[in-house]
Amino acid sequence: MRGAIGFLTRIPVGGTEADWAAFRRRAYSLPLVGFLIGGLAGSVFFLPVQPPTLVAAYLVGLYLLTGVTHADGLADLGDALAVHGDADRKREVLKDSATGVGGTLLLGVTLFVVALGALSFAGIGPWRALRLVVAAEVGAKLGMALVACYGRPAHEGLGSQLVGELTHRSFAPAVVVSLPAIAAAPNGLAPALVATLATGPAVGLAVLTWGHRTLGGVSGDLLGATNEIGRALALHVGVSVWILT
Fold first, then answer.
1. Spatial separation of the C-alpha atoms in residues 80 and 94, rounded to whole Å
2. Mean pLDDT by 10 residues, the chain (245 residues)
3. 216 torsion bin: left (phi>0), alpha (psi -120 to 50), beta (else)
4. Spatial separation of the C-alpha atoms in residues 65 and 30, rounded to whole Å
5. CB-based burial, 79-112: b 16+ in 10 Å, e otherwise
6. pTM of the prediction?
7. DSSP string computed for 72-135
8. Whole-angstrom distance, CA of residue 132 vs CA of residue 241
9. Coil, helix or strand for 98?
10. What's the chain's Rg over C-alpha atoms?
């Protein structure tokens, strides 16, 4: 857990090479940290302030807690999607530290989608908002676990240390530890929580498929992009299902 918290957040838990090695072999630690991030970030919805302020507090708290590593992966994916060329050219763009128009656009749109998703929580109550935020965060991390467990490394790097270590057998425990995110749902919230949790793995499957077909594998950037896109879409899916049911 120290290795997972150190990888996914900016919480100063310390950690050693042994912690990192243990984290690499345990995909279930990803959604477990999702509970921590979602619980801390979602607690802002209990503040007695206006919805726009809640959204700002959620976004600021979220990225103070998690940092911008995964957002950087999202921007790199945007550049890879925008660039013309073969797999080698796209892999080169993914490794480039500079952010182009494609990356800026995808990052901006995703953050805007997150903000709108959080704003849609207005009126549903702080406890329901917290449960949806937690389910979205756990689902996003479960999507990362899916990419890591079923993917093959596109190139050497930080991501390959995780993707190359895990196998598809590691995914089932990650699913099991994610289930409390949908347990004991109050007042008919269960369908919304299930849909919210499932969005992350759905995004992970899409990213995994694109990575294998386009790049010949997946990278750390695709793991980060899965997390960011999965969270953004899950917030909207959760509220939409809650309203419809």
1. 6
2. 90 86 91 96 92 90 89 82 76 72 85 85 85 96 95 73 82 96 86 96 95 87 92 93 86
3. left
4. 15
5. bbbbeeeeeeebbebbeeeeebebbeebbeebbe
6. 0.92
7. HHHHHHHHHHH--S-HHHHHHHHH--S--HHHHHHHHHHHHHHHHHHHTTTTS-HHHHHHHHHH
8. 11
9. coil
10. 17
